[in-house]
Specification:
The chain is α/β, with parallel strands linked by helices. It contains ten helices and twelve strands. It has a seven-stranded parallel beta sheet, sandwiched between helices. The chain has a five-stranded mixed beta sheet with strand order 8-9-7-10-11. Strand 1, helix 1 (14-25) and strand 2 form a beta-alpha-beta unit.
Length: 272
């Protein structure tokens, strides 16, 4: 089988560069396009040079539609609005769309779901193997421990440049905990505490977001009971773990039936 041609959206950014390096280093895939925003200083320059690889013969472009049309897959760590537009293009051209973007709202999610009727879309708040394994463990723990006796707190820390909070990974872990307890996360979660908050509501799932320095991503789920506490943690030290997971997801998505999938599906960790 020939190499899978992958376009990278946001290719000049930190994750974009990591994706370029990962695709070039892996068998079975090739960089077909490197997409950047209109007006970027990178346009026309070789994407491999930006990723510190040397020339790879792929220049940055702002023509996302042409990039999608010429590819078998699009790997996308950009912004919610841009990603939603890209999902529509993936549906139009029948291209696999791997989404690592975070910060979506309900309207965004609805449009992505519509696009998934015609495209294979893999969407996850985190593409790493470790985090997705952690989510399974969190779901199992939340299911096993009585919410009247055990409190769940999710603490995450990222670099100072991250613009959304809680992180997509924290929400992924929150969803896993809510699923384990058979509750709706939007109804059970507490995102902000300030001032005289009163006692902690039983069964709630709390979030705390820390920002600073160059932290790639640290996440800990605390399950706190009377006289004991369980901590489930994951620490990311290199963005390449997300890039490798995203490329693996693209290869998995090749020739699949249209639908909305997650990394749990890619890694075979689903209970179904």
């Amino acid at each position: 089988m020939s190499d899978m041609k992958l376009a990278v959206a946001g290719a000049a950014g930190r994750m974009g560069q990591a994706l370029i390096r990962t695709i070039v280093s892996m068998d079975g895939v090739a960089v077909s396009a490197a997409v950047e925003r209109s007006g970027s200083e990178c346009l026309g320059k070789d994407a491999g040079v930006q990723a510190q690889l040397g020339e790879i013969g792929v220049a940055f472009t702002d023509d996302i539609e042409a990039a999608v049309a010429a590819s078998a897959g699009l790997v996308d760590f950009t912004t919610p609005d841009f990603t939603v537009a890209n999902a529509a293009l993936a549906a139009k051209y029948g291209v696999a769309h791997v989404i690592g973007t975070t910060g979506f709202n309900a309207a965004h999610d609805e449009k992505i779901q519509i696009a998934a009727e015609k495209a294979v879309i893999v969407k996850s708040g985190n593409m790493s193997l470790g985090v997705n394994l952690l989510s399974v463990l969190v779901r199992q723990a939340a299911k096993a421990l009585d919410p009247e006796d055990w409190d769940i707190e999710i603490v995450e820390m990222h670099h100072r440049h991250k613009v959304d909070a809680p992180s997509g990974t924290a929400l992924l872990l929150g969803d896993a905990a809510a699923e384990g307890r058979d509750v709706n996360l939007s109804e059970a979660s507490i995102r902000v505490r300030d001032g005289h908050t009163g006692p902690r509501p039983a069964g709630s799932i709390g979030f705390a977001s820390l920002r600073g320095g160059s932290v790639v991503g640290d996440h800990t789920v605390f399950l706190a009971g009377e006289g004991e506490m369980v901590e489930l943690s994951h620490k990311a030290t290199d963005r390449s773990i997300f890039a490798r997971g995203a490329v693996k997801a693209a290869l998995w998505a090749r020739n699949r039936e249209p639908g909305l999938y997650s990394m749990i599906d890619v890694l075979g960790l689903s209970e179904n």
